[in-house]
Amino acid sequence: MALSGCSSRGGVPEPASRQGEDVLDLWRILLGAGIALGVVVTALVLWTVVAYRRPRSAGPDDLPKQTDANIPIEVFYTVVPLVIVALLFGLTMRTQDRITKESDDPDLAVEVTGFQWGWRFRYPAQGVTITGDANHPPTLTLPVGANVRLRLVAADVVHSFFVPAFLVKKDLIPGVDNSLDIRPTQPGRFPAVCAEFCGLDHWRMTFDVEVITPEAFQAFVADQQRVPGGPGSDGSGPGDLGQRASIAS
Length: 249
Description:
- By secondary structure, the protein is α+β, with helices and mostly antiparallel strands.
- The chain has two domains: 13-57 and 64-100, Helix Hairpins; 108-248, Immunoglobulin-like, CATH 2.60.40.
- It contains four helices and ten strands; from the N terminus they run ααββββββββββαα.
- The chain has helices at 18-51, 71-100, 214-225, 241-248, and strands at 108-115, 118-123, 128-132, 139-143, 148-154, 159-163, 168-172, 178-182, 188-194, 206-212.
- Strands 3-2-1-5-8 form a five-stranded mixed beta sheet. A five-stranded mixed beta sheet has the order 4-10-9-6-7.
- α1 (18-51) runs antiparallel to α2 and α3 (214-225) packs antiparallel against α4.
- The protein is elongated and about 95 Å long.
């Protein structure tokens, strides 16, 4: 029954982005290393308890053989943990570099603005803006397979952009120009939240991410541009239609 809830992901949601796949790979390594070290330490403790238990024939004042030092063992248990920590640190830095690396030519740019207590998603090149609040959470629509540059802007206090299925998150900090590249790999609808306490209705500051095909994304943009008020209601104009076509390709 205990094993029925286990998976090869070790409790992590199935990643829906390329960056999430890198995070999952690192998590598997860290989890495996933790389990292996736990087994070794537990085995050594049990072996010590059993092998060096007090014999029944020992008197109340009898002591086991005392050893002042064992230099090889002390060097071993000092060097090995340092090597393990160095390896795990190196793997973590490699994964972090992959996740935070930004493309020189992203397929799509979206400005994500967090405010108390809602979200605004602006597609500058398409002239589309989606806004929602705690009562009407918005949806961030992205094309599957596209490299998306998210520019993260805080309108008031610190917020945090977190899509659990993407396995990455990043803070929106007033006055700080933060950005994040995401490449969605699976179509679907994924819940998302603000992951940084930002005030009274922080718990209601949610949104959805809908990942659709490039063709469906073009249709979504066209539909939004036909909304009363039209494209450019955010002051950006109809956008670069050539970029939309390049996404679909």
